[in-house]
Specification:
6-stranded parallel β-sheet, TIM Barrel, Urease, subunit C, domain 1, 2 domains
């Protein structure tokens, strides 16, 4: 009887989630640990995790006695990946199609969940979803994941894009729908003048926005006063602002955004050194999103990129020059000291959304530096999200978001595409 009770107690002590199991911790034995803050590789190395935090990193962890050991063999341990430009509620091509916009909010919420799970299993423990919610479905998904009801990455959300009234809507899609939790529910929120812009920003934040995404792609729908009002209102609520910028030779939208002091500029295609120098001076992050253009450029004409969206020859022909400008913009930004955060602009469904991990390779190719790419998708992204004290590196005290992959990504950036171990918040998701 005593032996039987002893077995029960031993089983309880080892049970996942028990206080004893959490106190004992888990040791990840890695062939190498990628230190993105110091740009160093520690090998061999181990990481001690207790609860949801990293307690120690080193070659000899004396304090790990009694911890469960996970031998990862010849794998590199790196911080959980971060993609700062995704569209979880989307299932369309680079130009959103009518089929995507006609979907119900419940369909889009379920698609968001599937996309989020796919991203997590490829190693993305944190993502920023920028726009194209029908209502606020990714806000609800973010909160459900945070409560532990669903498995997925940590999510930062900008539910809708914001731009000026009276101009062509973003990609020609106004997409008004009849009812919803806001008085003017659209995929893109529109207003005229600083007062209206402040109201829209406050409303987005009241429904759970972490970020405000500006969609004044060419600098034609908003005045400097409008943009200043958006940034000021977001700051008043402790939130951040991104600006979507496309291939404008005059860089008007980028100049307005930089002057207003946004936190990040997406896509950009910026080749003006003065704009990039000002971004570096103000610590405005650049999110190139090379992957989406590269992906489309590699597809044959007639490819069905998503339901109702077929790649035609005209669009395909436009991709190569755009890709060349984007890579040059990324190279120049790196050269001039602009902080680069990784973002793919992935908009496809769960079968392909996680291929966005290829953005690491594309940033490395554009900048000529694997460390820049690794940091873009870890510590620099965390700093842009104002979570650098908790996320973005493998260091004592930080949240235990850790991925492992065969090989060494510092020597072969393609290793980032072979992740086969994922830990988020101290819980092993994939092994």
């Amino acid at each position: 009887m005593a032996r039987f009770l002893g077995l029960i107690v031993a089983a309880w002590l080892a049970a996942p989630g028990s206080a004893a199991a959490e106190d004992a911790g888990v040791v990840l034995q890695c062939a190498r640990v990628i230190d993105v803050e110091r740009r160093e590789v520690l090998e061999p190395a181990a990481v001690l995790v207790r609860g949801n935090r990293i307690e120690a990193v080193g070659t000899d962890l004396a304090e790990s006695e009694g911890a469960t050991r996970v031998d990862l063999g010849d794998r590199s341990c790196a911080p959980g990946f971060m993609d700062t430009h995704v569209h979880l509620a989307h299932d369309g091509g680079v130009i959103a199609n009518a089929v995507t916009y006609s979907r119900s909010a419940s369909w889009r919420a379920l698609r968001s969940l599937a996309n989020a799970r796919a991203m997590l299993h490829r190693g993305f423990t944190t993502v920023r979803s920028l726009g194209f919610d029908r209502y606020f479905e990714t806000v609800d998904l973010r909160d459900a994941i945070a409560r532990g009801e669903h498995q997925g990455p940590r999510i930062f959300v900008a539910p809708h894009g914001v731009q000026g009234e009276g101009s062509a809507t973003f990609l020609g899609k106004r997409a008004v729908f009849p009812e919803g939790p806001v008085d003017d529910p659209r995929f893109v929120r529109m207003g005229t003048g600083p007062v209206e812009m402040r109201r829209i920003v406050a409303q987005e934040i009241s429904y759970g926005a972490d970020w405000i995404k500006l969609l004044d792609a060419f600098g034609t729908s908003m005045t400097a006063e409008d943009m200043n009002a958006v940034v000021a209102e977001a700051r008043r609520h402790g939130k951040q602002v991104s600006q979507h910028v496309t291939a404008d030779p005059e860089h008007k939208a980028a100049k307005l955004a930089v002057a207003a002091g946004v936190d990040s500029i997406e896509h950009a295609f910026i080749t003006d050194p003065e704009v990039l120098r000002e971004m570096a001076r103000k610590d405005i992050h650049y999110v190139p999103t090379i992957w989406i253009i590269d992906y489309i450029a590699r597809q044959p004409p007639g490819s069905v990129l998503s339901e109702g969206f077929v790649l035609d020859g005209t669009m395909l022909a436009s991709m190569a020059p755009l890709l060349a400008v984007l890579k040059e913009s990324t190279r120049l930004a790196h050269e001039l000291g602009v902080p680069i955060a990784l973002g793919s602009d992935t908009v496809f469904g769960p079968d392909r959304i996680a291929d966005a991990v290829e953005e690491f390779r594309l940033v490395a190719e554009a900048t000529g530096d694997n460390w820049t790419a690794l940091r873009a998708g870890t510590i620099v992204a965390a700093e842009m999200l104002e979570r650098g004290t908790d996320l973005g590196s493998i260091a004592p005290g930080k949240l235990a978001d850790i991925v492992a992959m065969p090989g060494n990504p510092v020597e072969d950036i393609g290793a980032t595409e072979r992740v086969d171990f994922v830990m988020k918040d101290g819980a092993i998701i994939r092994r």
